[in-house]
Specification:
Acetolactate_synth_ssu_C; ACT_dom; 4-stranded antiparallel β-sheet; 186 residues; disordered N terminus; branched-chain amino acid biosynthesis; Alpha-Beta Plaits; alpha+beta; 4 helices; amino-acid biosynthesis
Length: 186
């Protein structure tokens, strides 16, 4: 019989930990991409991600310059530092792309997301849902005798926390816009 002696606080690795100790850690990045507002541009951007196996955590797009026919695509993705560099370089090579900004590394930025949450319930659950909504500064945008629809704006983490607290109170549906972000300052 063989005994394995492991000291508490030891830095030795388990025989079952198959992770590469030299591997880079994935990071969350928010990218702002200014593009021509023309058919197929969004499909090309999305194709770049899916074709290379990159995941998109959040995606928002809207025309921001009506006269110049430009749109802003905000993408939240995860990857190792080298993968993020590849993503930015490949986005920059797509012809209708004018600018690519990594808001995560270029300095302070503001991120917000809008969420609508439907909570169904009666009695104490209904009272508790209203109390939590007040704490989170969520607005009631629809109310029936058996449900509320709350509107809340904030960081993705704030919306996640709100959803987690509403789940046991009858959270039955939710819709989220995805992240909108801008660099802070001049």
């Amino acid at each position: 019989m063989m005994a394995l002696n492991i000291k508490q606080g030891s830095t030795s690795h388990s025989a079952y930990d198959l992770r590469d100790p030299n591997a880079q850690i994935e990071e969350r990045h928010t990218l702002a991409v200014l593009v021509e507002n023309e058919p197929g541009v969004l499909a090309r951007v999305i194709g770049l991600f899916s074709g290379r196996g990159y995941n998109i955590d959040s995606l928002t797009v809207a025309e921001t310059d009506h006269e110049g026919h430009r749109s802003r695509i905000t993408i939240v993705t995860r990857g190792t530092p080298s993968v993020i560099v590849q993503i930015k370089a490949q986005l920059g090579r797509i012809v209708p792309v004018h600018e690519v900004h990594d808001l995560t590394t270029e300095g302070p930025s503001v991120e917000r997301e809008l969420g609508l949450f439907k909570v169904s319930g009666t009695g104490d659950h209904r009272v508790e849902a209203l109390r939590i909504a007040e704490i989170f500064r969520a607005n009631v945008v629809d109310s029936t005798l058996k449900s509320f629809v709350f509107e809340i704006t904030g960081t993705p983490e704030k919306l996640d926390a709100f959803a987690e607290l509403m789940r046991p109170l009858g959270l039955s549906d939710q819709a989220r816009t995805g992240v909108a972000a801008l660099a802070r300052g001049a």
